[in-house]
Amino acid sequence: MASNDLGYATLSARDRDEGERRVVRIGAERAYFRWCPDGKYMMGSSPKEKGRDNHGNIETQHPVILTKGFWIMETPVTVGMFEVFVNNYNDKHKYKSVGDTPFGLVKNKNRMYPNKKFSWDNPGYEYDNDHPVTCISWKDAIAFCKWLSEKTNQKMRLPTEAEWEYACRAGETKVSTTLDELLDELKKKAWIPDNSDNQAHPVAKDSHYNTWHICDMIGNVREWCQDGYGKYPNGSVTNPIIPPKGKLRIVRGGSWASALENCRPAARLSYCQSYRSSYQGFRVVCECEQQ
């Protein structure tokens, strides 16, 4: 196991079971990763899925084959992890977040507004090191992944959109057929507007895990993906990724502030890569050589 003064460790892809857990220390913080095996699934949503009404033309259901397994972070990147990155960015400077003025909840108005006071260390609500980091642009997330790659000597990156949905579904195929059913399910397994008290919640301190033991894939904070925005194909694809051209990037998962229809495994949103908000974060994938 390789490591350095900050405690980074090596992940491998040999003889793993789905959901198997490994830890990478990031300073004093522990980042747990779960193994997602290679496999195939149906990406997107069927016309019968409740909540897709406004998204059907961009959620075309199609077979996806992933030929390589990958490690995905069990939780979104936390404030504590991001702080280690900020303070150890390089020998001369701390990292400074780049992007648009962050959106957040202005509580005395009970609405979302851009506010220059909002930042990754001031999201507009009380937080600690175990909260998911927010007010993060796509460029911030890419910078974190690049830094962590250098520290671990492994390829750390954002998940592709296909990897994200595969890890989110974790082999599950059930979908809600009514909005009431969708709401009841989400209340049990996700932080959404109905139960979040208008803020993000600490990761890994609730029962919001899927069958591969990956936490908060739905709700709490939306998550950046590697892909640019584009329509799905009609047929089967292998290891798909939409190249990140232009300014739009895919966001997945819904959040504590999201509409119900956006809190589904198939739901797709896109935002400018410079967008930042107090309900948007990211998680990391470790791309391993197959051994």
Give a structural overview:
- With 291 residues, the protein is of the alpha+beta class.
- It has a single domain, classed as paralog of FGE (formylglycine-generating enzyme) (Alpha-Beta Complex).
- The protein has helices at 79-87, 138-152, 161-169, 179-189; strands at 21-26, 29-36, 39-43, 62-66, 70-73, 103-106, 111-114, 155-157, 222-228, 237-238, 248-252, 269-272, 280-281, 285-287.
- The chain has a 5-stranded antiparallel sheet with strand order 1-2-5-14-8. It has a 4-stranded mixed sheet with strand order 12-11-9-13. The protein has a 3-stranded mixed sheet with strand order 3-4-10, covered by helices on one side.
- The longest helix has 15 residues, at 138-152.
- The chain is globular and about 50 Å long.
